[in-house]
Specification:
alpha+beta; 52 residues; elongated; 2 strands
Length: 52
Amino acid sequence: MYHGGVTDYIYVHVFPFIFNFADIAITVGGVILAARMLLERPQDEASAPTHA
């Protein structure tokens, strides 16, 4: 906002690449979602409430 525009690309001096911030956010979100789906333990059916 200070320069009157939006910065979409980020240059990281450690890497020789220029990163697109939106792609980074989508990739990180996908990795977090996949990790939660793979690492989440299934609920025990014995602990589930029964309606008898």
